[in-house]
Amino acid sequence: MVLEKLQEIISFYIDEPLEIKMDTHVYRDLIINSFDYTNIITDIEDEFEITIDDLTIFLIKDLVQLIIDLNGKQE
After folding, report:
1. 51 CB-near residues (< 8 Å, 6+ apart)
2. How many CB atoms are closer than 10 A to CB 26?
3. Given this structure, which CATH class describes domain 2-71?
4. How far apart are CA 59 and CA 41, in angstroms?
5. For the segment 9-21, what is each residue's pLDDT rounded down to a tens digit?
6. Where are the domains of the chain?
7. CA–CA separation, 39 vs 55, rounded Å?
């Protein structure tokens, strides 16, 4: 489950508990900085064994779709 794994990865980088949903905006809702965003992307790449070239993804649903497209995992 891509969303559940993303929730696990992202939760490590946020200070306050927050429900991470498909319509969550990475910067606005998670309140993270660009360093944390880069670390999150790196962790996602490692977890799913993919390379994410598009660093303009801001919604969780877009990130989930990209992961599915890149490695064929089911949501």
Report:
1. 45, 70
2. 20
3. mainly alpha
4. 13
5. 999 999 888 899 9
6. 2-71
7. 12
How many Å separate Cα 20 from the centre of its chain? 10
The Cα–Cα gap between 42 and 53 comes to 11
13-68 confidence digits (pLDDT tens)? 998 888 999 999 988 898 888 899 889 999 999 999 999 887 778 899 999 999 99
DSSP label of 21 = -
For residue 8 the two structure tokens come to 């696990």
C-alpha 63/C-alpha 50 separation (Å) is: 12
β partners of residue 25: 59
DSSP 25: B
pTM exceeds 0.70: yes
Contact 2, 37 (CB under 8 A): no
